[in-house]
Design brief:
single chain; seven-stranded mixed sheet; 454 residues; 25 strands; alpha/beta
């Protein structure tokens, strides 16, 4: 009923869209969960949001059915296209939800519609509340800023429980009247066959998917544009398409910084301020940076319309997210170029203070990646009695790499970086811990340094 929260734990499939729009129609709030979560995490989110019902898929049914507080749990006919290992009870089938159309309600644009979650690492993920107005805003901005057309075919494989897959991709296509080709998840082997079969023209990519697709040459395709994190002309030329960049967060609903689908863009940039948001880039003293400088990114919008309404049942976190003038603290650092284009620098928490000097973890990581034999790297801070913090690099080596790669990393950094930027330690690791959609969990790496359980 109106105001109830419904926990939706589904991979990409038509039912996850039907469910969340059905909730919006009757005034319920759809709580979007990640199907990769473990049972304790799922129970935690169900309890934290006070969900009364759940919609899931067969392989997750037992996990949801064991959660206390749920009045009913239903499951889709299949596991995002795959035949289920075991059927669910007849009374728990998704089809039981169908019935006479519920009556239309009086419009209330500021009523909550969705709860999405920020990526959690060491603490419970925050529930980001979107209103009905947020959904309309995200749809319109995605369609207009990305130049989505009614004759486009949008291939969507990024998860619909995240902002890029849902707001930037699906809502934009929905608003423009485009066609959506929905895949359960990203698959390197299935991406091109699906794209070719349906003559896809648009897709949203993240760093991980772009990197995987970049390992082989593309076939002849119908793509005209990909939405990406930053503009890489050589990549766009190789794939024979246009890159449209965008920056945003779950809290932003749409892109706060975006490229232009009709004009040339500065290489490496993420875009310019969106027409729908105010943007400030401040130095550590709180003043606006000069062109060429890097600073902290702040964004202002209208809560419940162009930015999220609140963090669910956490007024203190909501208050702390904004400064006294209503500017949202993004936690990102960006560089303002002389021509107005903005380039991502790093997360503010990835700035390591070495003896009072601010050191960008991203800068060190870029240097380490250039060392032959390095597959992946993540740089974090380690407390130091003399300098406050020093940099430590966790490195995943390619198979067959020489055992002295740690020494090679240090030597390479010493030759290319200031002394205070050189990692004090290089730790070889089999795999970097990941959360979300391939995002490296630096919080877990910091914990490993603290405990020395490496």
């Amino acid at each position: 009923s109106e105001g109830d929260r419904v926990f939706i734990l589904l991979e990409n499939c038509p039912q996850t869209l039907l469910a969340r729009f059905a909730c919006a129609w009757i005034g319920a709030v759809a709580v979007l969960g990640n199907p990769a979560l473990a049972a304790p995490e799922v129970r935690d989110l169900v309890e934290a949001t006070g969900a009364r019902a759940a919609i899931t898929q067969p392989r997750l049914y037992d996990m949801l059915a064991a959660c206390p507080g749920l009045s009913f749990v239903v499951a889709t006919p299949d596991d995002a296209g795959l035949a289920p290992a075991a059927p669910v009870p007849a009374s728990a089938r998704f089809e039981t939800l169908f019935g006479p159309r519920a009556p239309a309600r009086a419009p209330d644009p500021l009523q909550p519609a969705l709860i999405l979650f920020t990526t959690g690492t060491t603490a419970r993920a925050k529930g980001v509340v979107w209103t009905h107005a947020n959904l309309l805003w995200g749809a319109k901005m995605a369609a207009t800023q990305q130049g989505v057309r009614s004759d486009d075919v949008y291939q969507i494989f990024l998860p619909l429980f995240h902002v890029v897959g849902f707001s930037w991709s699906f809502l934009g296509a929905f608003y423009a009247g485009a066609t959506v080709v929905l895949q359960p998840r990203f698959s390197a082997s299935r991406f091109w066959p699906v794209a070719m079969e349906h003559r896809a023209t648009l897709a949203s990519q993240v760093k991980f998917t772009s990197s995987v697709l970049g390992q082989s040459d593309p076939p002849a395709h119908a793509f005209r544009m990909w939405i990406t994190a930053n503009h890489t002309p050589a990549f766009a030329q190789r794939f024979g398409l246009r890159e449209l960049t965008g920056w945003g967060m779950t809290e932003m609903v749409a892109q706060g910084i975006v490229g232009d689908p009709w004009s040339a863009q500065r290489p490496g940039s993420i875009g310019r301020p969106s027409a729908g948001y105010a943007v400030q880039i401040r130095n550590d003293d709180g003043h606006a940076v000069s062109p060429g400088d890097t600073g902290h990114l702040f964004v202002k919008g209208v809560p419940g319309v162009s930015i999220f309404a609140e963090y669910f049942q956490d007024p203190q976190a909501t208050k702390d997210a904004f400064d006294g003038d209503g500017w949202f603290r993004t936690g990102d650092r960006v560089t303002l170029h002389e021509d107005g284009w903005i380039q991502f620098a790093d997360r503010a928490k990835d700035v390591i203070k070495v003896g009072g000097e601010g050191v960008s973890a991203a800068e060190i990581e870029a240097a380490v990646r250039a060392v032959p034999g390095v597959a992946e790297v993540a740089v974090v801070a380690r407390p130091d009695p003399d300098y406050g913090e020093v940099a430590v690099a966790f490195v995943v080596a390619l198979p067959g790499t020489k055992s002295d790669i740690a020494d090679a990393v240090i030597a390479h950094c010493r030759a290319r970086l200031a002394k205070f930027k050189v990692p004090r330690e290089v730790i070889l690791i089999d795999a970097l811990p990941k959360v979300g959609f391939g995002k490296i969990s630096k919080a877990q790496l910091r914990e490993r340094l603290t405990s020395r359980a490496i």
